[in-house]
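I'll show a typical protein example:
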Amino acid sequence: MLLSGGLDSATTLAIAQSDGFDCYVLSFRYGQRHAAELDAARRVAKSLGAAKHVILDIDLREFGGSALTDDIAVPKDRTPDSSIPVTYVPARNTIFLSFALAWAEVLGAQDIFIGVNALDYSGYPDCRPEYIAAFQQLADLATKAGVEGSRLRIHAPLIRMTKAEIIRKGTELGVDFGLTLSCYDPSPAGKPCGHCDACQLRAKGFAEALV
């Protein structure tokens, strides 16, 4: 289970737990501009009773190319359009899912959960249903488990849900969203900026969910 510390991945963890899975949770210290999201991931994993939580170190700052890993300003109060925003981290979900595949094989797990969403989101290419379907094909071909017939299934339970629907589902499952952090540019104390894309989508979701 990939866990960022945001509301989507927290809800995905709660869904997996409610479906009876023992959840081994994976987060990344990947050179992102703040550590507050990892603090949130720790809180969420503990709150929801993950079986184990690993935070893996990889440094995407070597490549840069994103406002989250480079000296590029995080856009604030922007009007959403069809372009891919500068907060997109090149190939991030492919990198993260590849590590998840590796750990799943070691654990003998057959299910991998990721909290991507293709409705109320920032337009990232690796959050779409077509991407998840393609990665499923890769998992079938690229792993010992897949070749030997023990298929690793990629689950994206939020993929076609609005942010309001995700929040309602998480609330129903007892997720404490006060433990989560969605902001791209929080203060050193972890206070959300309220103006980046992620903050705006989150606020819109809570307003629409009446939560």
User: Anything to note?
Assistant: Residues 92-107 form the longest helix (16 residues).
